[in-house]
Amino acid sequence: MSTIDDYCEHCDLPLSTCVHGNPPAPPPEPAPKASPVRTTRTTARVPGSSAKPPPPARARRHTPAADLEPHVLAVLEDLGGEAAAEDVMVAVGERMADVFRPGDQEKGPTGELRWRTACRTARKNLADQGLLVAPSPGVWRLT
User: Where does 29-85 show beta strands of DSSP type E?
Assistant: First the structure.
């Protein structure tokens, strides 16, 4: 090879170090993708299959708010359609005393008994359904 062939005509560098004389670098390999999160599907158990049945549902420790909604409405009807929130709570507590679950008498994170918090949530749900309004703070009224 002659000395003229050893140098690049574009940048005057030796061809071994010149970007023009070397083949282009291969594109970088893409990083492997993480596998997507897969959730398990519950399917009906086919007789003779080895699939395990789902575990039994846990028993609730306290009464859900939805179970208190009819009692809140009944107490408000008994009290003339409008009453102070505390009066409604006392009446619901008396009405449901023998039905409450063990966890209902525990205090929640706010320091209030769990059944009272559920009763307030029941009032909110009833207000969202349009069955109850709070015309002033601490007063509940049927619509």
Answer: 82-84
Q: What pLDDT sits at residue 142?
A: 93
Nearest to 71, CA basis, from 91, 100, 101, 98: 91
Ranges of H-type helices in 21-113: 65-78, 85-96
Q: Which residues contact 31 (CB under 8 A, 6 or more apart)?
A: none
**Looking at residue 2, what is its pLDDT?**
47
Tokens of 53: 């049945």
Backbone region of residue 21 per phi and psi (left: phi > 0; alpha: psi in -120 to 50; beta: other values): alpha
Pair 54, 81: CB distance under 8 Å = no
Which residues fall within 8 angstroms of residue 25, CB to CB, at 6 or more apart? none
pLDDT digits (tens, 9 = 90+) for 53-87: 777 777 778 889 999 999 999 999 999 999 999 99
